Amino acid sequence: MTALPQGTILGYPRIGPRRELKKAVEAFWSGRSDLNTLESTAAQLRAATRERLTARGLGRADSAIPESFSFYDQVLDAAVTVGAIPARFEGLREADGSIGLPAYFTIARGEGERAPLEMTKWFDSNYHYLVPEIGPETAFSLSSDRLVQQVAEAISAGYVSRPVIVGPVTLLALAKASDAAPEGFDPLSRLDDLVPVYVDLLARLRAAGAEWVQLDEPALVSESLPASVEQLGDAAARALAVIGAAADRPSILVAAPYAALDANFAVLAAAPIEAIGIDLVRGDIPAAVDGLSGKALVGGVIDGHNIWRGDLSAAFDKLEALGALGAGQVIVSTSTSLLHVPHDIADESKLDDRLVSWLAFADQKVEQVVTLARGLSEGRAAIQDALDAASAALVDRGDAPGVRDGVVRSRELDEGDFSRVPYEQREGAQDEALDLPALPLTTIGSFPQTGDIRRARAQYIRGELSHDEYEEFLRREVDTVIELQENLGLDVLVHGEPERNDMVQYFAENLDGFAVTEHGWVQSYGSRATRPSILWGDVSRPAPITVGWSSYAQSKTAKHMKGMLTGPVTILAWSFVRDDQPLQATANQVALALRDEISDLEHAGIRIIQVDEPALRELLPLKKHDQAAYLEWSVASFRLATGGAAPATQVHTHLCYSEFGVVIDAIRALDADVTSIEAARSRMDVVTDIAEVGFTHGIGPGVYDIHSPRVPTTDEIESLLRRAVDEIPTRQLWVNPDCGLKTRGYEETTQSLQNIVEATRRVRAEVAVTA
Hints:
It is built from 26 helices and 22 strands. It has 771 residues and is of the alpha/beta class. A seven-stranded parallel sheet has the order 1-5-7-8-9-10-11. Strands 12-17-19-20-21-22 form a six-stranded parallel sheet. α1 runs antiparallel to α2, α16 packs antiparallel against α17 and α22 packs parallel to α23 (664-670). It is globular. The mean pLDDT is 95.
């Protein structure tokens, strides 16, 4: 077996530069293509990735290239590989016991009475993973050889790549107990049963030609999981003792990205593995520990989480400091997988050249890794020109117009700007002004973005539709959405947001300090991708953004129309944010722009305004000592945005896949009048947290999982509503889907909303009788 090369990456974007995988997968789901076509497209994408990485300097046959492809999600891949699937899907296995691609997609998306796996955020990123369900009954066995096939595929093409799989500790630490598990069951207790399947997998990967394998174990850096850091470290030591002792295995790189390893660095140093990957962007150089002399330290000095070119000189300093720890080898890498950044800055023809000079997308980060690796091999002098060029770009960025705006920075704040009158006073004023029924029915904001909407937007961008023609098209879409909601019997309406391509990009396009990309796609979950905007300078609002469309929509109905805004934390979380000042300062700039927008909406007669913060939990630091400060400034930015609203104006917020119980105190501190949250996929488990903490404001636990194509039955929705009514006072409850309806089609949306209305009618009747 060979040593790892001087430079590598932990993973690479898998959707394709033009979202080729998304299109192929969705064509298969819709029946427009068959399984062979999908498999062929995926193989072509994997081949293109290997060629692309080789062309940018990674070695063809030295395990530098990670085999990190996934059809949907890497956690689902690992769960399916080891047979960790819920009982409701067992009947989908092939005759030989394996889990094929159609079954894999059913587990991800659900089908009929088979609800999909729950979905939540991957550590502190905007990527969503599927939550495994594991209990005492879970029978682990090697149930998919896809990763083995991909290694063989690479070998046949002349590549010795490095297969990547989520490690056993992280797989179990991120899992939830199955429905069959007894109360208090911990999936991590199944570790000793799971590890032999990994040993079997590693043997098969070695037989296929793999010389190295990468086990991703980010759970080892997190202090935000049910298991403690010490428990996770003990589990890793136990698992790696067995895996490392296997006679027939590849060399093992354990990667622990997203934060510092801290005490678990010593655990990995003592384990019988060959390499340790540490995040040196989110963490510092660790202290020297025993056991490093025979190991490679893979230093993640190139930021896999953001798109800035960065300080290469400082990165090289870190690598040199890493070498002082006494490891057998120092290797340069990315801090995380490059899954979180777009493919190639060269694809962006419309960005300002000066801005481009400050940026590095995935391909440029690969080139940075290769440059630093050359420096490790040949000495700093060999790459001094590249280090100087990166330093010069940093200086230029700091001096550029708009990066610091004196007018923005001179806006004064006082303590009163961060609060409204007490909720008890607002509640009475809103009840009188709004006159809503018990269990008010609404949606989260967006309605389906149809092919017609996307075509019209593209035609407008290309100049094939005039401004007036496009505006008229959008007005017709708004009219249709309003008519549908009124016919269904919803109580608080939305305009459907046809003018918005994305809930963050729309605001980025209308705020100073942002830039947007053409092809900067990043996977969000499954086949869904987003184009994060680039927040490069001080933020200000040159003109009202949403007032025109909200006013038009309100003029078309006598019912209340929600004004729809994206909150400051979510705008930051779903953008590539400047790294030259504290996030708190940037969040407050965005909040002030939104505060001005809320004032204009109020003056236009909008009485309900929703400020979405689905990413509040997402940015929560993984280390406990950083969490209080984050929650303080993130909550403050929301309160700054909404603090000027009148008492009779009802402020809503929305959080999805946010593990409500983890940040319940922060959500309460937001002081929104109504909070809507994801609850359907987890079958309303969140209401227990809400009830236990005595949450007194309005709450809308979702009753329709919009991330699945399933149409929930009326009985299913009624059951969820009844659970909510049993645990939370009716006066607080709202009825709504889990999230916006942008990704769904109209047929399923309409049927689902009809079922929600009917279920609500039934529960309302019972509540009225009880009252």
